[in-house]
From TrEMBL:
The chain crosses the membrane at residues 12-28. InterPro entries: RND_pump_MFP, YknX-like_C. GO terms for molecular function: efflux transmembrane transporter activity. Belongs to the membrane fusion protein (MFP) (TC 8.A.1) family. Residues 291-358 form the YknX-like C-terminal permuted SH3-like domain. It comes from the Bacteria. This is YknX-like C-terminal permuted SH3-like domain-containing protein. It holds the Pfam family YknX_C. Keywords: Membrane, Transmembrane, Transmembrane helix. One of its GO terms (cellular component) is efflux pump complex.
Length: 359
């Protein structure tokens, strides 16, 4: 009898231990440690979708002017930073030598003209206007007269060319603006057309030029709004409007394909905006008000390629498929699948399992 009672107690203890172990196992199998799981909330927000790009300040109206021929630089009438008017003279070559050459060409012209007239008189055709001389008796005489005519025409052209050389010996600014670069600022040196270039920029025409990736350029249109932040004025938000989008692509420093998008800048009072200032720009693609959004960190793509979110309700995780709308770097619009106020996992999703509790 004593042995029976003892065995019965032992069996009861064993069964009790098994029950405790199984309960412990099933309890912790249905719970997930949530120490690394962080939650966000489905909320209604104003959402602005934007495209970001980098760029710099440039000028829409600028001119690089140079001499048409080589010569001695005799006069430079401006300095870098000077304000100039349209058609103002900027620099000049030495015209004395050019003038002497013109005088020589004029003398050559007079000599050739006299020879020409004498030839016509000698051959009795001084009153003939047709330069083909159809009534001249022989082909030889006709060729002589025509050659004289060609020689005269050639000398006339030499005079005209030399006269143009004097005319173009002075650089003229074709625009109102600011002199920003003079490659040869000192007179007295011999120069070539490429060596005496002067750059004039109209500061009123400053614009911001950004390199937009080919993937995003189709989302931008002329007249679209944008926000610019320049490195020179980091605390200032500059509103801009898209002026133009290049038709031909450009290659970025990283080897990618981009298109130059030009936007307006505010009035350049006091030359606030200078060529070469770097900055960033955001093109507002879509501006939505009162839309349902979730943090971007909560969005996951499942193995079957479905866009989903882990929703946590009453401490239980559930994977919900969602449909997204507009997106920004931080938030995504929810078209369907979620309700405002629901809690979603933003970190630690790998630890979650369907239907399991979160500690």
């Amino acid at each position: 009898m004593y042995r029976f009672i003892k065995n019965h107690k032992l069996t009861t203890l064993i069964l009790l231990g098994v029950v405790i172990v199984l309960s412990y196992y099933f309890f912790f199998q249905t719970k997930t440690k949530g120490e690394s799981v962080k939650l966000g909330e489905v909320s209604t927000e104003k959402l602005s979708e934007a495209i970001s790009a980098s760029g710099s300040v440039d000028a829409a109206i600028k001119a690089k002017v140079r001499f048409a021929s080589s010569g001695k630089l005799s006069w430079v009438g401006v300095q870098e930073g000077d304000v100039v008017k349209k058609w103002q003279a900027l620099a000049s070559l030495d015209k004395e030598e050019l003038q002497k050459k013109l005088e020589k060409e004029l003398i050559d012209y007079k000599n050739e003209r006299w020879d020409f007239e004498q030839g016509r008189e000698d051959y009795g055709v001084e009153k003939v206007q047709d330069q083909t001389y159809p009534n001249v008796l022989t082909d030889e005489l006709r060729r002589i007269l025509q050659k004289n005519q060609f020689d005269l025409d050639s000398v006339v052209l030499d005079v005209e060319i030399q006269n143009l050389a004097i005319k173009y010996a002075t650089i003229i600014s074709p625009i109102d603006g600011l002199v920003v670069e003079i490659e040869e600022p000192f007179a007295g040196v011999n120069t070539t057309p490429a060596g005496a270039e002067i750059t004039v920029v109209d500061p009123k025409s400053t614009e911001f030029v950004a390199e937009v990736d080919e993937v995003d350029v189709s989302k931008i249109n002329v007249g679209q709004g944008a926000i610019i932040t320049l490195d020179a004025y980091p605390d200032e938000v500059i509103k801009a409007t898209v002026k133009s989008i290049d038709f031909v692509s450009t290659t970025t420093k990283g080897g990618g394909t981009a298109y130059l998008v030009k936007t307006t800048l505010p009035e350049n009072i006091g030359v606030k905006f200078r060529i070469g200032m770097n900055g960033d720009i955001e093109f507002v693609v879509e501006d939505l008000k009162s839309v349902l959004v979730v943090p971007q960190k909560s969005i996951i793509i499942t193995d079957d390629n479905k866009t989903s979110v882990w929703v946590v309700k009453d401490g239980v995780a559930k994977l919900i498929e969602v449909e997204l709308g507009a997106e920004t770097a931080d938030y995504a619009e929810i078209i369907s699948g979620l309700k405002e106020g629901e809690k979603v996992a933003t970190e630690g999703q790998d630890e979650l399992k369907e239907g399991k509790n979160i500690e």
